[in-house]
Fold these 2 entries.
Entry 1:
Amino acid sequence: MARKTTIKNDDDEAEEPVRPSFGSSAGAGNFEDPNQQRFDDELRPSKLEDIVGQMAVVERLRILLEATKKRKEPLGHLLFDGPPGLGKTTLATVIPRELGTELQITAGPSLSAPKDLLPYLTNASYGSVLFIDEIHRMPPTVEEFIYPAMEDFRIDITLGDGLNARTINMKLQPFTLIGATTRSGMLTAPLRDRFVNREHLDFYTTEELSTIISRNSQKLRTEIAPEAAHEIAIRSRGTPRKANNWLRWTRDFADARANGKITLDVARAALRMKGVDDAGLEEQDRRYLETIINVFSGGPAGVQALGHTLNIPADTLEDEVEPFLLREGFIQRTPRGRMITAKALAHLGVTSKSKTKSPRDNSDPASDQRELF
Ligand SMILES: Nc1ncnc2c1ncn2[C@@H]1O[C@H](COP(=O)(O)OP(=O)(O)OP(=O)(O)O)[C@@H](O)[C@H]1O
Ligand SMILES: [Mg+2]
């Protein structure tokens, strides 16, 4: 059954967040966490003007939307790629709202055969948006089925088998496919090329995240000091979803341990309790870096081998852990594998010869002694 979410462009209703049903597939970053899905939806901007950051992307989208509205034609197919939690789903749901069209949502993993996609395609009205999250996880048979739908707005359905098999063509209403992926590299070239518009989302600046945190604390009716918003922003790995999650946690902490106001001290204490250090690295990141140092002598280390050692799927490392560590220069990717950098060694308090001090625990320096290379 196609899940369909109609988005009205009525101003009175514009504040109401879009709450489409994603089934279990809410995106690579939160694939199996229904709470995360609910949290995301609660704080998701509903209009383009509420989107913070990604200025170049938003500017290009504005142009596309304006041209589409003027010409009264469907928007060209659009692909968003980038690490989890940066706003792919947000932008994909804002666009139909801006255009005043309908939105249907599904995700690559729930499309196991062409018949799963069929209802979405036949239900798509003129100019409406079909959003396929995690589009890189669509099986090849579904991918091939979608090509003529994207290109010529028609589908080819084969009926019967063997000599009796015949193909019938079915015309579709021109629609817009919006795809989102954390792995654009995993998309086949023919699929990627069928998206006339492609946008890459990058990590956010501390200032942008501070703005998101301050705005959302108002939505959550919580008072937050500007320095506290800045502190949370620094530790949010350039990711709005992380910023929102830390905001929620510091708010709980402030309610339970303080007078409900998020001050700088409250924010620091709350994040310390979660093991977030001043570069925004969490336990998992530090374990990842320490594994390269201790098990692989600083690298190179293959992602599969790292995944086995850490007992974390290699996909998760590639999607959720590595992009930020790479961007911040804590690791390097070489053809032979991941290498630790001097910056990571300095951050973890490891020197290339001898003494090591973990930034979190200096109670027992002997237990942290490591010798490198
Ligand atoms: N530009 C933005 N401005 C304000 N808030 C944002 C922005 N981008 C994302 N957010 C917030 O971050 C949350 C996560 O964003 P979103 O679900 O769009 O990420 P995603 O890229 O789809 O992640 P995934 O790859 O895990 O599916 C949203 O609920 C929203 O509250
Ligand atoms: Mg998403």
Note: The radius of gyration is 23 Å.
Entry 2:
Amino acid sequence: MDLLINPPASRIQICLFKSKRAILLPRNYKISAMIIKEAHIANLHAGPTLLARILKQTYWIVGAKRLIRKIVNKCVCCRYHSKPVKQLMEICRRLVSRLDELLQTPVVISQDQSK
Ligand SMILES: [Zn+2]
């Protein structure tokens, strides 16, 4: 009650003020998923652990970790940007094996006899 009359001054006091009055949300409500999606995008596609920490400051979503993991795993951007590394490694491995094949095959240089 004292905080409502005298607003918090420092950043630490503001964080404590917010975390003490976290908004309780059930996991199966659509607004919970919408808040998580918005926070995921606003925080540059943050991972599940970071996202849980960020959301905990303002919201208390019951069973949030599982819901956050589900939403992050479904994110198209995160999936798109995580795949190329694996594909690139596969391409490099194929190129190296192909290069080994090419280096082992003898090169035949034909001489043109029409000159
Ligand atoms: Zn994402």
Note: The two ends are 102 Å apart (CA to CA).
